[in-house]
Amino acid sequence: MPESLRKPTLDKDLDKLTTMEMAAESVSQRVVAPGLAILFVVICAIVSGALVTGHQGAVVIVAAAVVGAYMALNIGANDVANNVGPAVGARAMKLGTALVIAAIFESAGALIAGGDVIGTISKGIISPEAVNTPEVFISAMLAALVSSALWIHLATWLKAPVSTTHSIVGGVMGSGIAAAGISAVQWTTMGSIALSWVISPLLGGVIAAAFLAFIKTAIIYREDKISAAVRWVPVLIAVMTGAFSAYLAIKGLKSLVEITLTLALVIGLGTGVLAWIISRPLIRRQARGLENRNQSLRKLFALPLVFSAALLSFAHGANDVANAVGPLAAIVHTAELGEVASKVSIPLWVMAVGAFGISLGLVLFGPRLIKLVGNEITKLNPMRAYCVALSAALTVIAASALGLPVSSTHIAVGAVFGVGFFREWYTARSQRRADYVAMRSETNGNGSTPKTTSKRASADDQRRRFLVRRAHFLTIVAAWLITVPAAAILSGVLFAVFRAVFS
């Protein structure tokens, strides 16, 4: 063998060491995230134990805090991906930036505006009068928490964006039925919640499609795209700012001063107008020198897309913190009083468990599903992603204001589907697009003109192609359908186990 083909022993050893280092780094990355998650759960146990020392039912409260922290981590890993996934998929911001923004606004939404929905979860599904024994009620809530957390963990591992709201509501319902029969469930409340589950994804899809239709009509297909964007992008920013301000006025300031709905709307209108005034020169300055084409519009939509992702994270934190700490709040209240109360107070530390647990779960385990929502359902650009985020944010805000624990997963993914299906419909029926495709097909790579049949075939292919991946659509809908019964059955079984062990 020639000398040049022989590998010195030292080089072989160095290659082995490099391979070992890469393997060790890969293993350490897989261990760090679970290790930090376990550390968070342990900290929650220690803090809750210190706060309830000497109280009645301290052991039960600490156990519930551990399960609530585990539940919050799973919500962050699974559900929060819907908030920033479209922005990441559209390449409007990097994954690290998206994680930071989502973590900050998730925590803010949970701590500022998460109280109303917690009341619905903790005492609106199971009637306290039907489960009037503290031990039974605590076992039911604990079973609901454990079953929901386990189901969401499994779904996250399978890379399925299931609804955490469905999981916890199904868990509460299943343990309630196991504890006191069907009569324990407040079916009127359940009916309104179930109806909101059906309406919310449809509403999210319709609103997202409507915004995309407006953007196409008012900006994309205008002769001067940049001038149209300079005119309308500040208006879209004003809509987001106004909605966010009105909601924050109603929810976040009610503990300081009483604000009526009319006053909140006036505040929203005022801040919206202010946002329009401020954003107009910024967008105009950003538009200078841009070419009159769609690629340039993406730059102008970067700022409103980031803002809408932050708004959706805030709204999600306000709505979905209930999934983590609603049953926990009920357990803490019942254990401390020794009786099932009709009104549940929410300690600050309970809210903090949900808020920080969701944020940490997002940072540690969220990127997998962020990529699914952002890249694998349909192709998103900044304009489409903005429509998804704004639609989902407005729908979640409205639901949280009404005290309805709707599924943000349903709303956000429904908005993604709405954008994709609208594009399919628009592609099949838009004469403007058909003319554009035909024009692009008039010359091939060599500058020659293809046959008329080829042009027609190209346009027909554009009309027929699917822009939403049907496999993901069917898989996600199937996961939505199975979540409630699966969580309910598991919760009922766990309740029976808890009662057998601790009674």
TrEMBL record:
Transmembrane domains' residue ranges: 31-52, 58-77, 98-121, 136-156, 168-187, 193-216, 228-250, 256-279, 300-318, 346-365, 385-404, 410-426, 473-498
Positions of the UniProt region annotated as Disordered: 439-460
GO molecular function terms attached to this record: phosphate transmembrane transporter activity
Highest rank taxon of the organism: Bacteria
UniProt topology in membrane: Multi-pass membrane protein
Keywords of this entry: Membrane, Phosphate transport, Transmembrane, Transmembrane helix, Transport
Localization (cell): Membrane
InterPro entries referenced in this protein's UniProt entry, alphabetically: Phos_transporter (IPR001204)
Major localization class: membrane
GO cellular component: membrane
One Pfam family from the record: PHO4
UniProt feature, compositional bias: Polar residues: 441-456
GO BP annotation list: phosphate ion transmembrane transport
Family affiliation: Belongs to the inorganic phosphate transporter (PiT) (TC 2.A.20) family.
Protein known as: Phosphate transporter
Organism: Pseudohoeflea suaedae
Lineage: Bacteria, Pseudomonadati, Pseudomonadota, Alphaproteobacteria, Hyphomicrobiales
